[in-house]
Specification:
This protein is α/β, with parallel strands linked by helices and 361 residues long. The chain has helices at 14-23, 45-49, 61-64, 75-81, 93-105, 138-145, 160-168, 210-221, 265-274, 278-281, 303-306, 338-354, and strands spanning 4-9, 29-36, 69-70, 84-87, 110-112, 152-154, 175-184, 224-226, 229-231, 237-244, 251-259, 292-295, 315-322, 328-334. Helix 1 crosses helix 12. The two termini are 15 Å apart.
Length: 361
């Protein structure tokens, strides 16, 4: 099949690097443009990155000699060369909103890793296994923007990807209260131990804005499309506490849940084992064969051992047991820059292509 031509805007940051890496040998997508700030524009990608390549796998050969374009000044030129772009720019929220909308208005679909448009009512925030039906709000967004091809779609906060899928599959039992504590890797801040030595042997009990995202964003994921906007769900009530921990990659969550109709532990495990979403139905290239993996061992999942399950695109769960205050408690883990960031956005782009929202120019 003819591949979709893809651009990465914000290609020099950690998530941008992950996009570039994931597009190497992708069966549907061909990396065609890399764009970044004016500081990097005009240099080859290899020159622009310099010593800042943050991934374990080497920089793809196809990317090294690509000349970096200016993400802000070259919008028209970039939009004319690609079928869609991934956005991982590091700018102020208002600047990101304006930039992504400018690409959409140039008839270029934007699949964004950024949080800037997560609360725009007609921008779908999608985890393909949870709320694929939200992409139909794109039709209303296109009318608002006055475009035919362009739109913005976003993925949710990286830490949600660990615990929300496990809870989502249990909503049929009347999930009404959730307490979650997340233990988030330093790559979630775009850092390595070399660039953030203060994190070695340390835990920081604060990540700016993260608790609000953890409490509110699931309600948009569980909302409904009504009259051209997404209306948030009213429940469950979620309270969250988020900590930065000295792990390179992998966000863990300790989850406590209460239900109106309490399921048995056997029912929960059976649901997790058999859960499939739209990504599995369509057999999308980046989709894990099994989305939710439950570990019976008392000391699993572990960040270092299990974050790469199914190429880092699966969610790992363990330690399900009754709780004295809530009905049950359990632990979840996902890879924050794969499932949680760039990988989740690539999977979303695959869904948008498969469902006909992204077409070749």
């Amino acid at each position: 099949m003819e591949k979709y031509k893809v651009g990465v805007i914000g290609g020099t940051g950690m998530v941008g690097q992950r996009f570039v890496s994931l597009l190497e040998n992708h069966p549907w997508f061909q990396l065609t443009v890399i764009a970044a700030s004016s500081r990097s524009a005009g240099k080859t990608y290899e020159e622009a990155i310099g010593s800042r390549w943050a991934l374990e796998n080497p920089m793809p050969e196809e990317a090294k000699k690509m000349v970096v374009m200016n993400a802000e000044a070259d919008i028209e030129a970039i939009a004319s060369q690609v079928d869609f772009v991934f956005s991982a720019v590091d700018m102020k929220k208002e600047e990101i909103q304006a930039l992504e909308e400018a690409y959409a208005k140039h008839e270029c679909p934007v699949v964004s890793n950024n949080s800037a448009h997560r609360w725009t009512p007609d921008v779908p925030m999608v985890v393909p296994e949870i709320n694929p039906e939200h992409i139909k709000v794109i039709e209303a967004q296109r009318k608002r923007l006055g475009v035919e091809r362009g739109f913005i779609a976003v993925k949710s906060n990286c830490s949600l990807q660990s615990y929300v899928p496990a809870l989502h599959s249990l909503r049929g039992f009347g999930l009404n209260q959730v307490l979650v504590c997340t233990y988030q890797a330093i790559s979630g801040a775009g850092k390595t131990f070399d660039t953030w030595p203060e994190m070695v042997d340390n835990v920081i009990p604060y990540i700016g804005g993260e608790e609000e995202k953890s409490e509110q964003e699931p309600l948009k994921l569980w909302g409904k499309v009504e009259n051209g906007v997404i209306v948030n769900a009213q429940s469950p009530a979620i309270t969250a506490q988020c900590l930065r921990v000295p792990a390179s990659n992998g966000h863990m969550a300790a989850v406590f849940a209460r239900f109106e109709n309490k399921p048995s532990m056997e029912e929960i495990k059976e649901i997790w084992a058999n859960y499939k979403g739209r990504a599995q139905e369509l057999a999308l290239p980046s989709a894990p064969k099994q989305f939710l993996h439950y570990f019976e061992e008392p000391d699993r999942p572990q960040t270092r051992l299990d974050r790469m399950t199914e190429g880092g695109m699966a969610v790992c769960i363990g330690r399900l047991r009754p709780d004295t205050q809530y009905d049950y408690k359990f632990v979840c883990l996902s890879h924050n820059t794969l499932r949680g960031a760039a990988g989740g956005a690539v999977l979303l782009a695959e869904l948008l292509c498969a469902e006909g929202y992204i077409s070749r120019r």
